[in-house]
Design brief:
single chain, about 375 residues, alpha+beta, Beta-Lactamase, Hypothetical protein af1432, 2 domains, 6-stranded antiparallel sheet, 14 helices, 6 strands, about 50% helix
Length: about 375
């Protein structure tokens, strides 16, 4: 039987409907993913799309002691009465205790590396007996397999590209911290605009996954241009611009060769690669798109990428101060950058500064 693409959200919703027939008080199933590089836990998918709490939520795992403990011991946790969480300082615990009565949580892993948690919540105290726990453990393994089958191809691709960069010395031009910062700045903007543009947590997570690949086409650019310490000539700059088209060709090749490991939400990656150098006033490349003709992912990435580029050392110039970089973004609101993206970025100035500080380069100020 032939099956079309189904998102993890759709799979989880169908699973939940099956469980509700037998367990009517089991009213919520949610998955959160853990990012080992940043130590952050992100909401990913949930079975109840009409529930408006804990949307686009993230927190350091280290600040959630109960989850840190079950991640370390690998055992599920049952809380028979969630009222015990009402004294917790974490937003997650407060919200859960106010909306549900009991919970069952399982961590899940790949090659002994923590991938995340699956949360089952009920509207009845002491709802999770041994029979239900056993059944949910089986469903957790199913969800674990679905998440891994979705996420593993992306992580494999990113790892392959990073390995290639190291071999080809492209890492000299773009550090891993640049990629984390750029992805983090994108996430700040995306979360601020999520309700306006209808971004789901699943889509936001894939933007995070794909962000490190925005300049993958630079693998096709010769080192004498890519790593040139001075200003590029017009001919060299034209060659540098081809990294966008080269990146799209790379993506076409990946889609052909990943037929048995499809890249989900690949349209996000295509817009990210193809549109992050387009500019609001039409002065960008490769197509010279203008205003809202530029895909929203490209408009978001443009702010994040340019801000980090000008506030970081490059082979051809020293970094600007953070304040100078922020002023540059504001001054080019409605010129180079989408005004809504700039507003979302500046509104979260404290978060931007926290990212810049946390992931600064060795020896940076």
């Amino acid at each position: 039987m032939r099956h079309g693409f189904r998102t993890i959200t759709e799979e989880l919703y169908e699973l939940h409907q099956t469980l509700l027939d037998q367990w009517p008080h089991l009213v919520r199933i949610a998955v959160a993913l853990y990012d080992e590089q940043t130590g952050m836990l992100h909401t990913f998918v949930r079975s109840n799309l009409d529930q408006l709490f804990l949307n686009h939520y993230s927190a350091p795992l280290s600040e959630i002691p109960s989850l840190t403990e079950i991640a370390a011991n690998g055992r599920p946790r049952v809380i028979k009465d969630l009222s015990v969480l009402r004294q917790s300082r974490s937003e997650h615990s407060q919200v859960i205790s106010q909306n549900f009565q009991s919970s069952f949580t399982e961590p899940f892993y790949f090659n002994e590396i923590l991938l995340g948690f699956i949360f089952y919540d009920a509207t009845q105290v002491d709802y999770f007996d041994q029979h239900l726990e056993k059944q949910l453990t089986a469903y957790t393994r199913l969800m674990e397999a679905l998440v891994i089958s979705d996420v593993l191809p992306v992580k494999t691709l990113v790892g392959l590209v990073e390995t290639t960069k190291e071999v080809t010395r492209l890492k000299d031009a773009e550090t891993s911290k640049h990629l984390i910062r750029m992805a983090s700045y994108m996430e700040i903007i995306v979360i601020e605009l999520a309700d306006q543009f209808g971004f789901s947590d699943e889509q936001i997570e894939y933007m995070w996954f794909y962000a490190p690949l925005h300049d993958v086409g630079k693998l096709a650019i010769k080192d004498d241009i890519l790593l040139k310490p001075g200003k590029l000539t017009p001919e060299e700059y034209k060659t540098m611009q081809t990294h966008v088209s080269e990146g799209l060709l790379f993506l076409d090749s990946i889609e052909r060769n990943f037929r048995f490991q499809p890249l989900h939400h690949v349209e996000i990656l295509r817009d990210l690669i193809g549109a992050h150098h387009e500019r609001w006033n039409g002065s960008g490349y490769p197509l010279g798109l203008k205003g809202k003709d530029i895909p929203i992912i490209g408009r978001i990435a443009a702010v994040a990428d340019v801000f980090d580029a000008v506030s970081s050392d490059r082979v051809y110039r020293k970094a600007w101060t953070i304040e100078t970089a922020l002023n540059y973004v504001v001054e080019n609101k409605g010129v180079l950058f989408d005004p809504e993206c700039v507003d979302a970025f500046i509104k979260n100035r404290d978060k931007v500064l926290a990212v810049a500080k946390k992931y600064q380069e060795e020896g940076g100020a």
